[in-house]
Specification:
365 residues; alpha/beta; Jelly Rolls; Collagenase (Catalytic Domain); 7 helices
Amino acid sequence: MTLLLVLACIGKPGAGDDSGVAADDMLSRESWVDSSNRDGMIEIPVELDGSASAFMVSVESDYYPVLETLTGPDGRTVLTWEDWYDSDNSLTYAFFWGTKAMAFNWPVREVDGPLAAGTWTVGVAMIDGSGFYANNVDAEVIVHRKADPDLAQGQVRARIVWAQGQGQDPDVVAAAEQAVERWREVWAMHGLTLVESWHDSELSSNLGFADSGSAKVEENAERFDGRELILVLGESISGASDTYGIAGGIPGSIEPNLNSHVTVAWLAHAGTNGNFNDDEIRLMGETMAHECGHFMGLFHPVEWNYDAWDALDDTEDCRTWQSCENKLGENLMFPYPICDWSSCAPQPDLTGQQKGVSQRYIGAL
């Protein structure tokens, strides 16, 4: 996974918004503690009244929660892990175990909706460290529902958090602020309005991998209001000089948990001299937008080895580096920057279906 970011999403712009629906009225939340049954499963009911455009189920435990099935109100199996686990196409990370905090957003694509009224059932398996089903284990379950009448426009609030001491360098701060303007510009092309705030933290400047999970990450996220995506800016990620950013999930949860953030390393963008030029600042802004895109459910349209793709119909299933760079190289979610000895090409584009995925994310309101 490359470039990824944690953001906070709320509300629609006041100007020009004729929906008549306030942001706080669009999103509902309920939570409870549940336990796995004798088969190692938790069956999570999601009650919908017909107004919901999307829902998210977040599960956190000392074990590993994994999505197995989604059943509609008519009893029909809408989604099963067996159709996707070994697929060359990626729909959600919720099918895979390895983190103790799972997030599942539905629908992902337009073809997956709309949502029928009634009781949907999300079947989550609780897996132990050896990969076996675990019965009678507890998990915190959180269900968010959004009733958003406009899936073409969304406002996203981002908490941009400096790792310890990183917000003290005026040159780095200036570069980061300019990068955020590029992020804002790219998202605006696709109907997403970015509203950001800046914060300090005690998180290490050598950031960990966001998808690995960390109690310190959860503690940091709990400072905020729980409807947010959180981007942490540090010097490096696991000491690497060439890792731009990592997302805590595809998608990630707007609820504070072990993985609820994106990390971005400013030094990887600035290069060995540590000084930013305009091209490096633009690239960092696109990294922010790219990683946020992951957190909101977007996969790379093609993966690094050109042998796996996202689950969208309007992104090319190319199979060689040359055809992939020619057809998808300007896409925001392309897996790597395309650079020559002097600069990197802009990558601002999203397809119609990619835009739809980001707008269906529970935090884009």
